[in-house]
Amino acid sequence: PAGLNGLGKFIAKMPYQRKIGVLSGVGDRRDEDLREMGRISAEYFDELIIRRGDHLRGRSEESVLGLLREGALESGKLKDVKIILESDEAIYEAFKM
What pLDDT was estimated at residue 32? Predict the structure, then answer.
């Protein structure tokens, strides 16, 4: 979460009207850390796409995606979060948006 917070502060200074993020998580993080990453992302991005991470490290894909999404929606800043499993498809969708 600390690294994502630093990145978010940098992104917040960019002059773009709309900011779209593509987020993934790592399976060996605490549940609260994954939720916090979702919350932090919701603070800095107007739209959020969550993609499958490459390093599930013993945790189920559904668990990682669910915790990230849960945190983003808990923030109250986003109405919805897209989940697009494949990285290239998620990035392509972000560019289309």
Answer: 94
